[in-house]
Specification:
Layout (H helix, E strand, L loop, with lengths): L1 H11 L10 H12 L3 H12 L4 H26 L5 H49 L4 H19 L4 H28 L3 H8 L7 H18 L4 H4 L7 H28 L4 H6 L3 H10 L1 H26 L1 H8 L19 H13 L4 H28 L15 H15 L3 H25 L7
Helix pairs in contact: 2-7, 2-11, 2-14, 3-9, 4-9, 4-11, 4-17, 4-18, 5-6, 5-14, 5-15, 5-16, 5-17, 5-19, 6-14, 6-16, 7-11, 7-14, 13-14, 17-18, 17-19
Protein name: Amino acid permease
InterPro entries: AA/rel_permease1, AminoAcid_Transporter
Main location: membrane
Length: 455
Amino acid sequence: MTGWREVDTQVAAKRLPPRAIGLWGGLSANVLNMIGIGPFVTIPLALSALAGPAVLLGWVAGALLCLCDGLVWAELGSTIPESGGPYHYLREAYGRERAGRLFGFLYLWQTLLTAPLSIGSAAVGFAQYAGYLFPALGDGGRVVVAALLCLANTAILYRKVGDIQKLSLVVVVAVIAAGAWIVFTGITHFDMATARHFLDAPSPSGKGFWLGLGAVSLIAVYDYGGYNNVCMLGGEVKQPRRTIPMAVLISIPVVAVLYLGLNISILGVLPYEAAAKSTAVVADMMQAVHGAWGGTVAVLLILVASWGSALVVLLGYSRVPYAAAADGQFFKPFARLHPRDGFPTVSLLFVGVTSALACFLSLEKLISMLMVVQILFQYIAQCFAVVALRRRKADAEVFRMPLYPLPIAVSVAGWLYLVATSGTSTMLIALAAIAVGSVLFLWQARRTRTWPFPT
């Protein structure tokens, strides 16, 4: 693509991080990001939002929406394989010196909000399960644990990516093995009477059903989130036009099957009323089957999953301010690389510290704000970015989504539905954030005499 190649030529002389992440590294980065604390704390929330078997429909709907959106990410990541992916996608699609400046700025602005929310949600979930093992922590102690986890992960990531890739592979194997053990336990101890009680539970109708379906789908999308993590690391991926689409599209069905298995396993062991009120539903299930040791081991494995998730999300998001600064669109210090290992230093430290501060919010607030802000700032705009980029000539090896433009239409409709059912207050806060970001952009553009102000 002409516009991207011009940018690529301009930055070729700059010292960039090496392309060291292969397919397994990219796939593990996605899967580990997806299999974090999410389903272990949100399954009860989903059961409370939509009673009866219809709750499973919400999980399936969320998976289908993510698969369509994954096709969007796969095509964009293959077309413009650069670190900080969405920033480059939006700049190129809408014109680097025209409206793309606004979209790029708004993406960076929302990243400064969503990066701490996303990493903080994993850390807060970690702290909640730590509180299950150490009740004496209390609310204040759990906040401290979550913040310290963010700071510890920042220290771990302060090294070259190759070491982190090896670490993520080890952790993702452990996480998948833990999920398989939980599902196997549920299947082998499945009680038909308990499951029938769940299937016979009345589901709401009319408006209540659609609001509940939207709430469950929003939770599901949050839990599936992370299939795009490899796109954040595009500039460090080997053979990116092949590796990025494969990593995105393989990770979604793998995790969807695991999550559905978790739901079915839990609902075949625990009465759904008890599951809906649980604060550690997997631990309760494993304790019901294996006794106290089962619950303890399950909690330890969940702590590993949530730690790994926070680690990899921090890795991906830390590249976004760096990419913007390297492109001259953000403060210069964020473009600094480690002199020996070639990773972003200031950007990593900034995202790590702000994530620690986000841990002072509740998990529910972190999740709801994270999803709605991302949808309104980024996801819908990216759908139309695919259309804009397709109008330009591209290399033959670039991935092209099948059934175009159907996946885009499904994605846009799905995102609008989730926003509409998320609640008025959440929408207003997200819209206010967009307004503030737009005002900041216009102030900066006027000061520098750039688009939309004449030079």
